[in-house]
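Translate structure to sequence.
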């Protein structure tokens, strides 16, 4: 993404993002409007990004499915972008009702230019002219999250949860003082507090740790938003829309204080594919994964068995939504791959630990395996990086697994 630095005036700019649950009904919209006005009254120029109300986006997806199992992606984006258009107008009305000036803008009206990957577009540039004019005219500017336009003005969307990325991108484009992501929890936790009763809210987390946690299934932030925040060193805060608590600051280097492992994440949204009997010759992994890359299917954990009878089995995971498509692509190419069989399963989940301090501390993986062994959890696949360790396990084991791992690393440290 390219940015233009042109700071005008003396006022600081604050970007605030409110998710779908924070604007789910009229009462909540009015509460959010008051919160925004407080920030404005503190002397800031305020740009607000909102998501579609409640489960609007899911409802729109359902509507499309009633008509087609495979709707054209361009039309999906046309449809889904309407959800955010409802919230921005209602929020602007609420602010006006409270006696303040507000203007709502769609992604197109702002000039949020994206690539043409419908349903998963990337922001390329943001024009700041209209935004600055509206701000300088004293308006609170309400921008539709999750959407933009491509070079031919087709409406695009940024992928589920993409409003966070809109907010961070606007903060970059406007060189905002801070970007606040408001949600219905107090910040980033050491584990999902709905499952782990003594999960602790983190005061700080590093961009790198947050990127891992976001992509490992902690759904608080869209992971591309954190990548962007890291690239431009955005002052990013995740906090509650329900109270004034300080939230979690996401930043360059977070306070390492006694925390080797920062958090435990889990993800039910994965499926596993096994390709059985692939010839043990060079180029086979390339051929296999090229098929998927050409279809834009992301592959996560990959495991290759040792060779037996000159063949190997290759297993890997993909998002659940890609499981059927990926399997059928391979099935159609079994002959070319000279493989015996392809099988799949969605009866799988992932539990991961994340922490920048792992690099310098040996024995962390072993501790995680010990925790899982103690509660009788079987591990199907393992993958590690410098700052994370992931284990594939049965979905039924997820809750006891994360409780055990959370306890083993004493993450209830308060
Ligand atoms: N409304 C979109 C979704 O539900 C984008 C977002 O909420 O960030 O995924
Ligand atoms: Mg979200």
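Result:
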């Amino acid at each position: 993404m390219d940015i233009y630095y042109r700071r005008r005036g003396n006022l600081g700019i604050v970007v605030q993002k409110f998710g779908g649950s924070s604007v789910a009904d009229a009462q909540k919209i009015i509460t959010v409007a008051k919160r925004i006005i407080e920030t404005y009254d503190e002397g800031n120029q305020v740009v607000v990004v909102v998501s579609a109300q409640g489960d609007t986006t899911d409802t729109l997806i359902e509507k499309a499915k009633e008509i087609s199992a495979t709707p054209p992606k361009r039309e999906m984006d046309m449809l889904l972008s309407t959800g955010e258009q409802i919230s921005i107008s209602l929020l602007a009305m609420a602010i006006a009702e409270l006696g303040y000036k507000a203007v709502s803008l769609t992604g197109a009206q702002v000039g949020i230019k994206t690539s043409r990957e419908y349903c998963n577009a990337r922001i390329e540039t943001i024009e700041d002219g209209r935004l600055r004019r509206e701000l300088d005219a004293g308006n609170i500017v309400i921008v539709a999250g999750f959407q933009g336009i491509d070079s031919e003005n087709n409406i695009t969307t940024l992928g589920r949860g993409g409003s966070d990325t809109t907010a961070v991108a606007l903060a970059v484009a406007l060189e905002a003082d801070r970007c606040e992501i408001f949600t219905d929890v107090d910040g980033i936790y050491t584990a999902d507090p709905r499952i782990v009763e003594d999960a602790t809210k983190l005061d700080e987390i590093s961009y790198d740790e947050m990127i891992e946690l976001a992509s490992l299934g902690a759904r608080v932030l869209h992971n591309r938003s954190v990548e962007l925040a890291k690239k431009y060193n955005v002052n990013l805060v995740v906090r509650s829309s329900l109270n004034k608590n300080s939230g979690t600051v996401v930043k360059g280097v977070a306070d390492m204080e006694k925390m080797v492992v920062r958090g435990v994440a889990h993800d039910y949204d994965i499926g596993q594919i096994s390709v059985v009997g692939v010839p043990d010759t060079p180029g086979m992994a390339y051929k296999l994964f090229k098929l998927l890359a050409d279809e834009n299917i992301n592959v996560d954990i990959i495991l290759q068995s040792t060779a037996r009878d000159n063949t190997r089995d290759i297993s890997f995971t993909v998002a659940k939504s890609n499981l059927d498509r990926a399997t059928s692509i391979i099935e159609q190419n079994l002959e070319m791959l000279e493989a015996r069989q392809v099988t799949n399963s969605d009866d799988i989940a992932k539990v991961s630990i994340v922490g920048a301090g792992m690099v310098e501390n040996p024995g962390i993986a072993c501790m995680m395996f010990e925790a899982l062994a103690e509660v009788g959890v079987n591990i199907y696949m393992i993958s590690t990086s410098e700052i994370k360790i992931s284990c594939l396990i049965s979905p039924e084991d997820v809750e006891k697994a994360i409780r055990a791992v959370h306890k083993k690393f004493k993450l209830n440290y308060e």
